[in-house]
């Protein structure tokens, strides 16, 4: 139409809302009237009349859309036809189907396993009814120019906070579980080991740990009562019913008490940070360490959990807490704050007073891995579907010639991909069910495939997302073919489509290269922390708590322990040498100290012979010895402490600890009492045998099982009525890197699967490329091309794509691995060899994947491919 045109918005309304059966007639009539009115009344008048006429046609009669049995893609007959067509297509192209089934099911297996793991991690500690109001009281303390964040707060806060803060409903105070390696729990002639803790009376009101027997309000009210788990009740009494109101005796070190069982709680779930078999009223702790002996400060050794009132303003309460330590305790170096209790598991890491990650980093990492692996599997489907477009070109042409719209074809092809996704999801569920026991063993979890609402919704979402993502590009690509050309068997070769396909292949292999490099770096770092000397001997070292007579007669017990066959040495220490449960403290003074520099020191009471037992070397002076009577006022410092203090020739000099003078008798070589994630901190060994509770025993190599049996028998004879439970120092060392070892194991499996999926896609593309160029290969061979030159020709394109992928992946892998290694204060250096090795490995994998198809095509008889010519 030349000249004036009708208003576009009115034409758009007609096209958008009027039934297609009437649209052509209405538009034709209105355009004829518009042309006539332009000549009669002018363009402006004609446009107004056209707009009014268009609006008048927006009536229910013209808007009513009746089903079109020939063009509707959603009626039952067409859906059935699409399903039959898809099934026939899968059966006819068996290689295409198998490649996609293996690739998509592998990707879905990875996604499902990671989904189960991530869901469990995110649900940790979130099952408590008061989760939205349950917080843990935390503290920032100044240490030099930095802030040290800890969970340790003062026990007196349980009394002050409810009175001073109207937002607080209750405060539950507990002792740190790390203080207690174990309790011994006895009934008549039966003694068992139990993990336990001292907790406040409102413990069961704050935390949702159901009591199967007893009352949450009164179970912990009396210091002569205890609450035990269902499992412990069965071990001691046969059932929770029989355990109620019975007498048991708990023992810890030299302390013991006969108590009445006033409650039995359901065994604590695996996704709970709180784990115990025995809960003792906190009031009983006062007899072990009276509150009057504890300083009334904001900081302290206890854990305080706060339940807020339903209408409390958390932000207002935190503002009050920020200055509470200074106001209440005149402590300007400490700042109290709240952390949501259920956030502690995932967000437990702080750096200079700011939250800096924790296990949430691994949740994000594995979520990204699942997304990338599933995306790689979807890319396979896209590439294979578009590469086989020539097989379906006539099908598309015929359907379009018979009136099928592009929307109909898009729905058909998306339906095929969703059907494929459904089939692979069913296969993936079966594989996950088989692999779940092994996966639980690796991750240390108890994951199950329970068909709850959340899991079903997740499975449906995975199926639809995978189907739509995998089928979107092929559907758009195949449905746009020109029917006139497709009926002749011709394809529209668009340069953009080729680049999209190549880009997807590059993406797949770039991700695979990143996986290879990351796995190598993680394994090298794990090997580094395993092989590097931590500064002490960790092999064949066992420790256990001394209780009862062993704690009361410590020297006699250790002396007899050293005489046992197979025991190389024995001593005692207050806590584990690795990851001590206490935080470094200030209060150390020396000549020349800068009064503004508050250096924090770890201090550990030890017994004679501890450094010799652990193999900690002295670089100056000596260790503690009974030959020197003054050693009870002596200390041994590590190298870092001396360096931070700025003391030269430290042996023989004095320092003040807690207002008491101490003589430096030796300097120990630095050792890693914390993990390699942290720099070595200042450490002080203080001779105080009466404060030690852990017997530390070095066993001669090759005699561990026999010697342990002798130690167990000796312990029971020396200390009747107490359970003997021990741990290896090497086990604790490994626990420090449990997360890294989990990452290493899972990354290895997922990297292998990502490479497998990528290679499946590459194998299929190589097969279809060889088929597409079959006649070209025949011509080249007739003209004298050798088998090697044909193989090189077919391989060159894929090797170039892999080379581009390597070039893109290496910088990204370097950035990712350097960021991960940055979590370690001591780590390996990522040299060029790692990247070169990964590139070589990827090249070899690529050649191995495409070589079969390339050689097969090169060896084919050229006369077979040229017959049609």
From TrEMBL:
Signal peptide range equals: none
What are the alphabetically sorted keywords of the record? Cell membrane, Membrane, Transmembrane, Transmembrane helix
User: How is this protein situated with respect to the membrane?
Assistant: Multi-pass membrane protein
Q: Which residues cross the membrane?
A: 98-118, 365-386, 407-435, 455-478, 499-523, 749-770, 798-816, 828-850
Entry annotated with the keyword Zinc-finger: no
Q: Which GO terms describe its cellular component?
A: plasma membrane
- What residues does the ABC3 transporter permease C-terminal domain cover? 368-483, 750-858
MacB-like periplasmic core domain boundaries: 97-322, 511-682
Q: Where in the cell is it found?
A: Cell membrane
Q: Name one GO molecular function term.
A: transmembrane transporter activity
Domain of life of the organism encoding this protein: Bacteria
NCBIfam families in alphabetical order? perm_prefix_2
Specify the protein name.
Answer: ABC transporter permease
């Amino acid at each position: 139409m030349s000249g004036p045109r009708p208003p576009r918005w009115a034409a758009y309304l007609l096209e958008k809302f009027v039934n297609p059966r009437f649209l052509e007639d209405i538009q034709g009539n209105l355009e004829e009237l518009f042309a006539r009115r332009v000549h009669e009344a002018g363009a402006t008048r004609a446009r107004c009349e056209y707009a009014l006429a268009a609006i008048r046609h927006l009536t229910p009669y013209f808007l009513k859309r009746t089903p079109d049995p020939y063009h509707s893609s959603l009626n039952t007959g067409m859906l059935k036809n699409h399903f039959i067509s898809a099934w026939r297509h899968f059966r006819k192209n068996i290689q295409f189907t198998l490649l996609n089934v293996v690739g998509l099911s592998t990707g879905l297996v990875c996604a499902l396993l990671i989904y189960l793991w991530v869901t469990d991690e995110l649900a940790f500690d979130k099952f408590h009814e008061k989760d939205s109001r349950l917080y843990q009281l935390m503290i920032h303390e100044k240490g030099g120019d930095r802030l040290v964040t800890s969970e340790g707060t003062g026990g007196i806060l349980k009394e002050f906070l409810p009175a001073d803060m109207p937002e607080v409903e209750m405060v539950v105070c507990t002792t740190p579980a790390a203080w207690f390696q174990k309790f011994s729990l006895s009934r008549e002639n039966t003694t068992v080991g139990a993990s336990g803790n001292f907790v406040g009376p409102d413990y069961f009101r704050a935390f949702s740990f159901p009591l199967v027997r007893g009352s949450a309000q009164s179970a912990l009210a009396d210091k002569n009562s205890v609450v035990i788990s269902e499992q412990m009740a069965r071990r001691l009494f046969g059932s929770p019913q029989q355990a109620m109101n019975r007498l048991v005796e708990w023992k810890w070190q030299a302390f013991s008490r006969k108590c009445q069982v006033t409650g039995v709680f359901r065994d604590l779930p695996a996704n709970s940070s709180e784990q115990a078999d025995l809960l003792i009223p906190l009031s009983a702790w006062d007899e072990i360490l009276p509150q009057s002996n504890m300083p009334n400060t904001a900081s302290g050794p206890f854990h305080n959990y706060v339940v807020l009132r339903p209408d409390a303003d958390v932000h207002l309460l935190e503002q009050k807490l920020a200055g509470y330590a200074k106001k209440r305790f005149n402590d300007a170096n400490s700042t109290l704050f709240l952390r949501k209790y259920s956030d502690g598991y995932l967000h437990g890491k702080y750096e200079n007073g700011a939250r800096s990650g924790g296990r949430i980093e691994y949740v994000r990492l594995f979520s990204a891995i699942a997304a990338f692996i599933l995306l790689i599997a979807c890319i396979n489907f896209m590439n294979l579907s578009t590469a086989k477009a020539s097989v379906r070109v006539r099908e598309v042409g015929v359907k379009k010639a018979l009136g099928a719209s592009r929307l109909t074809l898009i729905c058909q092809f998306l339906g095929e991909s969703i059907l494929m996704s459904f089939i692979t999801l069913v296969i993936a569920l079966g594989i996950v069910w088989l692999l779940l026991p092994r996966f639980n063993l690796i991750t240390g979890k108890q994951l199950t495939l329970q068909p709850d609402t959340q899991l079903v919704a997740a499975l449906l979402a995975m199926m639809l997302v995978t189907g739509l993502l995998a089928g979107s590009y092929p559907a758009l690509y195949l449905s746009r073919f020109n029917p006139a050309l497709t009926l002749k068997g011709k394809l529209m070769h668009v340069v953009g489509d080729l680049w999209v396909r190549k880009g997807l292949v590059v993406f797949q292999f770039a991700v695979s290269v990143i996986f290879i490099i990351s796995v190598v770096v993680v394994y090298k770092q794990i090997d580094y922390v395993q092989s590097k000397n931590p500064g002490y001997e960790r092999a064949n070292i066992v420790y256990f708590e001394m209780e009862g007579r062993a704690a009361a007669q410590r020297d006699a017990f250790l002396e007899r322990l050293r005489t046992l066959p197979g025991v190389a040495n024995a001593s005692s220490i207050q806590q584990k040498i690795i990851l001590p449960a206490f935080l470094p403290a200030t209060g150390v003074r020396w000549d020349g100290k800068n009064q503004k520099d508050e250096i924090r020191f770890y201090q550990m009471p030890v017994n004679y012979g501890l450094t010799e037992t652990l193999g900690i070397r002295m670089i100056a002076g000596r260790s503690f010895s009974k030959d020197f009577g003054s050693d009870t006022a002596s200390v041994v410092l590590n190298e870092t402490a001396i360096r931070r203090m700025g003391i030269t020739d430290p042996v023989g000099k004095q320092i003040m600890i807690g207002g008491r003078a101490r003589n430096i008798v030796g300097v120990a070589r630095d050792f890693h009492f914390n993990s390699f994630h942290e720099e070595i901190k200042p450490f002080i060994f203080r001779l105080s045998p009466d404060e030690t509770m852990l017997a530390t025993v070095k066993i001669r190599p090759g005699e561990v099982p026999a010697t342990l049996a002798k130690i167990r028998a000796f312990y029971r004879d020396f200390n009747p009525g107490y359970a003997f439970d021990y741990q290896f120092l090497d086990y604790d060392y490994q626990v420090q890197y449990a997360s890294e070892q989990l990452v290493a194991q899972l990354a290895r499996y997922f990297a292998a699967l990502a490479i497998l999926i990528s290679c499946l896609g590459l194998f299929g593309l190589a097969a279809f490329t060889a088929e597409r160029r079959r006649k070209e290969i025949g011509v080249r061979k007739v003209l004298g091309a050798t088998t090697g030159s044909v193989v090189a020709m077919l391989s060159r394109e894929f090797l170039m794509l892999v080379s581009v992928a390597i070039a893109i992946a290496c910088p990204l892998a370097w950035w990712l691995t350097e960021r991960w290694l940055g979590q370690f204060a001591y780590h390996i250096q990522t040299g060029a060899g790692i990247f070169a090795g990964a590139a070589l490995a990827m090249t070899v994998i690529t050649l191995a994947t495409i070589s079969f198809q390339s050689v097969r095509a090169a060896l084919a008889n050229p006369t077979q491919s040229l017959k049609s010519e």
